[in-house]
């Protein structure tokens, strides 16, 4: 058994049965290909690597072969590899150039075939399988009018441009997480395609002084899982995140808030088709915030005031709102009853009732409550997300 088989479907089976041809070109970002390929395999994909001669100078073909168990194609032969692997629509499901240099992007846009990768690209563009490029280069190179024009040409032809992420000096290649999410988005159901979905998650943090605060238990994991799955199912996703304990991917459009008042000020920006709100917002905030740090050697009193309820305010701006109701120590029947009360009080489409005793874990105990019934959607964060998004696809 090849070592790559040990990690096959280790993370998910969402790419199971899919064949992805990856073109590796001569950017220093090619060193990331090993991790990208392994991540695709962990999600069930079969990966066929193709390398330019310049890519071989940066990353060893043996390393790439170890990553996926397939010997890289470095030049075309009498076996017509470009036709065998790309020409038949049943052979490959996706062709992606990672990383894509300015040179390869420009050749693709102008029909130039002088490497194994550009020949694969020409056939892929002609065979109409999904094609994606992940640019990686210096900032000045991507600002070159010719390169910008060529990227635009590829986009007009339906090529998916993944990244890059600019830092003022470099146009950095997309992360392995972004590539996997794009692969899933391009190769699985897109029942939320064209829908604008807002996810509001994390916790609010109400300052007592410059050091201390009032907050709730929330890692932001549920909101992030929802945002990633909505993206993978084709939605135009925006994530508004308060305090969280998870890394936020740079490929999701994200806005941050701290206090409930910050979030309230953002509500005028809501013009989405649907809002899902797993955020854990504080019910109270200090009536007076202290400048500086209160000495830790003395006791002090805090007077609290109620903060406004945000869900009803969101409901005024969007017809399709799904809220969350977190409780502790209740039976399933009691939990559903609480959720239904919230549903009717705020006129929501649905409420996800969950047990706060599982906050921060990889799984969630959850019930989706809507007007005509309820459904137990307990499972991993991904499974709960899909349970919620299945309902969203039905109502949109």
UniProtKB/TrEMBL annotation:
Q: Which GO terms describe its biological process?
A: coenzyme A biosynthetic process; pantothenate catabolic process
Does the record's keyword annotation contain RNA-binding?
A: no
Instruction: Quote the catalytic activity from the record.
Output: (R)-4'-phosphopantothenate + L-cysteine + CTP = N-[(R)-4-phosphopantothenoyl]-L-cysteine + CMP + diphosphate + H(+); N-[(R)-4-phosphopantothenoyl]-L-cysteine + H(+) = (R)-4'-phosphopantetheine + CO2
- Tell me the cofactors it needs: Mg(2+); FMN
Q: Under which pathway is this protein filed?
A: Cofactor biosynthesis; coenzyme A biosynthesis
Matches recorded under InterPro entries? CoaB-like_sf, CoaBC, DNA/pantothenate-metab_flavo_C, Flavin_trans-like, Flavoprotein
List ligand-binding residues for CTP. 283, 293, 324
A cellular component term, taken from the record's GO annotations: phosphopantothenoylcysteine decarboxylase complex
Q: Where is this region: Phosphopantothenoylcysteine decarboxylase?
A: 1-196
Asked if the record carries the keyword Magnesium, the reply is yes
Q: Which Pfam families match?
A: DFP (PF04127), Flavoprotein (PF02441)
Note on how the cofactor is bound: Binds 1 FMN per subunit.
In this chain the DNA/pantothenate metabolism flavoprotein C-terminal domain maps to 192-393
- Domain of life (superkingdom): Archaea
Enzyme Commission number, as recorded: 4.1.1.36, 6.3.2.5
Which residues does the UniProt record annotate as the domain Flavoprotein? 18-185
Q: Name one GO molecular function term.
A: FMN binding
What's the family?
Answer: In the N-terminal section; belongs to the HFCD (homo-oligomeric flavin containing Cys decarboxylase) superfamily.
Give the protein's biological function. Answer: Catalyzes two sequential steps in the biosynthesis of coenzyme A. In the first step cysteine is conjugated to 4'-phosphopantothenate to form 4-phosphopantothenoylcysteine. In the second step the latter compound is decarboxylated to form 4'-phosphopantotheine.
Name used for this protein in its record: Coenzyme A biosynthesis bifunctional protein CoaBC
The encoding gene:
coaBC
